[in-house]
Structure formats: C-alpha cells, structure tokens
Write a structure and sequence with these properties.
By secondary structure, this protein is an alpha/beta fold. The chain is about 45% helix and about 15% strand. A hairpin with a 2-residue loop joins β1 and β2. α4 packs parallel to α5, α12 crosses α20 and α17 packs across α18.
Amino acid sequence: MTIPSVTAPVRDLIQVRATLLNLTAPCWVVRGPDGIDITADAGRAAHAEVLTAVGPLPAHQLGDHTFGAFHGVRYAYTAGAMANGIASPAMVAALARAGYLASYGAAGVLPARVDTALAELATTLGELPYACNLIHSPSEPALERAIVDACLRHRVRCVEASAFMDLSPEIVRYRLTGLSTAPDGRVIRAHRVVAKVSRVEVAELFLRPAPAALVHQLLDRGDITTEQARLAVSVPMADDITAEADSGGHTDRRPLMVLLPDLIAARDRIHRELPALGQVRIGAGGGIGTPAAAAAAFALGAAYIVTGSINQATVEADQSDATKTLLAGAGVADCTMAPSSDMFELGVQVQVLRRGTMFATRAHRLYDTYRAYAGIDAIPAARREDLESAVFRRPLTEVWDDCVTYFTERDPVQLAGAADDPKRKMALIFRWYLGLSSGWSIRGANDRTADYQIWCGPAMGAFNNWVAGTHLAAPAHRRVAEIAHHILEGAAYLTRVGQLRTAGVRLPSEIAHYLPAPREER
C-alpha cells in the first residue's frame, strides 16, 4: 500500500522532524479527521487508523551490538588512527570517555614518543578501552617490532592493523601473546585486532588463523609459548575487519558499496569453511563524513563505522591551525594521490589534500626521478639542481647527512642497505622530503606551506558541505566526540526516515536532512 504524502505547513514539518528525532520512542503514521500525520503519542495512535510505524532507534543500537559488548564501548563507531600522532592521546581519551573506540596514530612516530603516548593513555583512561595503530612497515621491520613491544608493555588491548599486504611476524606476535584458556575451556583473546583492508585477498589473511610458518618462527624465537602456539589455530587473526574504501592516506579508493558486500561475502564463505573460529565482524570506513554516509554503511550491513579525515580538523587533533583551516575549506573533489613515504620503493600511494598545497605534484616528480635513474649521481645536473632548489631547498649531500643521523637512531639497518646500493640511497633521500612534509603540516611551518602533506579523503569535503552554516563550520568548534554524536544521531534519524519511505510514506524532501545543532538547543 502506498500511503499518501505527509503534507503540512512549515510549523508542522518542524514537529514531524522533532517526532522522528525522538529516537527512543516509537513513531506512528496515522490517518485522522485532519488527514495523514506522524506522532509519537501512543494514546493518539490508539484512537486513529495506524498506517505504518517505526520502532525506537537510539544511536547505540546502530550496527552490530556484539561490537560494543566485545570492545567494551557503547557505540558501533570508531575513530581510525591518523599517522604521526595526529590521532593524539587527547583525541583518543575524549572519544573513549564518550563511549567510542579510538586508535592512537602511532604510524611514523618514533618508538620513544609512542611509549610516552601509550603511558599517558594508560594513566588517563585506566580500564577504558582504546586502540593503537600498527602500520605494516616492510622496509622498517624494527619499527613494527618496537610498536608491538610498546603495546605489550603498556597492556594495550587492541591494535588497529593498517596497510598490511601480508601478515608480518609482529602482528602475529601481538595476536598470539594474548591467547589463553579460561577455566571452562574457552579461548580468551586478550589482544584484539581490528584490521583495515581494501582487498579480499588481504581480508582472507585476517579471517583465517595465523600461518603455521609464522607461528613456528615465533615459537622458535621464544616470542610465544607452546600453549599460545597450540591455540593459534582456534582464532582468526582479526576480530573485526574494516572495509577501507575511499579514505585518506593509504587507500585503494574502492567504492564502499562494492567493497563492503564483497568482504561480507568472503567472511561468510570462510565462516562456512571454518565455523569453529566464530564470525568476524565487518565494518566500514573511507568516505564516511556525514550521517547519510553512515546510514548507508549500516544499511549495507556494516557492523560498525570508522571515521578518519573529518577528525583531523577537530580541536583534539595534533594538527596545526593552518592545516585545519585548509581542511575546513576542502571540497569533495579536492583530494589526489601521491607517493607514500613508508612504501615509496613499492610505488604505493596515499590520498592527500590537493587544494592549498603543491606536495602531490612535487612527490610525483621525486618518484618519477627515482624510477628513471640508478642513483643520485645519475640524475642530470639540471634536474638535480631543480630538485635541490624547488623541493629540498638544500644540496642532496646535506639531505643524506640528515638521513644518516635519523636512521642511526631509528633503524640502522636502513643505512646498511644503502651503503652498496645507490638506488636505495636515493630512495632514502627522497623519503626525507616525503617524511618531513607531514611534519611541516603538523607544526604549521610557515615557510613550507606549499609542501604540506595532508592525508585526506573526500569525506572531508562532504563533512564541510554538511556542516556549512552551523556551529561546526569553524574548526575551533569541532570537538571529536560531538561530531561522533551527530554522525550517529543523524544516521539513526535518517534510517527512520528511510524506513517510513520504504513503507510507502511520501515525506517532504526537507525532512530527509539532519543538521547538527548544539546539544543545549535540542
């Protein structure tokens, strides 16, 4: 049955919106003497012809309820890690206190600073749950090991594994050292893994138990016990897998509506094959910057959602005011791809902000040069001079001296590999620029504005369009927990609007908009 339109003056539309926004109460569409109306009044509904209804839908009921129960949070919402500590301890703490899961941005951060940040979170949050990012670092395995060591030392109960193309010994070590057996025989997973992936073949690695070869390697090294090696076959490598679609930073820019169902299908197939492992939850991230995007992700079957780019312009983000201003002015089409620092030699790219910075253009020039020549000395003089003046602003020999100092502290193995390999040396020199450019953005270096590397996806532009004209338009008013609240409350509201439309209710187009207002105004 198609229900006639709910038509009313503007004053009544405000009432209809308020009724739908009362997420803890049922909502009835009724026919009375004055026509079709929407009400949350049970008494009125009892004395009218009820055409259809929707039940309560508070924000904490969105997604898979087992996500919150497993991680100890209230909402099926996580804030993904933003590298170089942009996802700061302050951001993680603010979200944890509000009932959300957030991940500290450990990627690219020196181990000593990661250790300090995790110690701060342990002291500040106590038993409140939070996560730490573990980014795959195939060119710097010592760094990956140092981050796992820090997580184990500070008893971090969850890591967000990102940019993995294959499983490494360190992610397996973290997972397995948390395994034990309860008195009733259940396998306890003290170390939880949320894996961000954009390919089914990578998802399968996390949907299955740890590979036997890696388990044996860790056992031989004494990194795990015999009991933990035995229990390895009892659990998948991840508890949750995030379908990472068109996100900032490392991304394949896959459409969420394609990627998410594909990963859910792969999960279900492997669950049928290995039912004893239990069912891994599949969440959605990348491109989620508005309530409409969140509602769509949940409608596609996402167990939880992940936000990233939009949190970078918040008060709690460890990002400069200059960069936050650039982000707040970004549009949906103001992003592009550029070579990454951590996987430069492999040709891996990251998504960055294009508007207001020349970083992407200059980074591509470096990668093109790397591919074309065997080493620094092979670069034609004119091209080398151009790079030194326009990109590095100093001689490449001085840049190499900085690289030696840096890697001597961070990972001396990198230098050993470059001593006899001119191309490797060139890669390290070029990575100097790629690595420092994000730091210039974070510090707000005035003389390097054109070189800011700002990881960003189109969700940032969508968010800016959504909050235009509201109190959240200005970065100074963007609090990360408040944004999470409005994303989920708006998603629940729009889901109820969608349920009524599916039932045949033709609502005015104005109803299908949720705008954030300060909580005291609601």
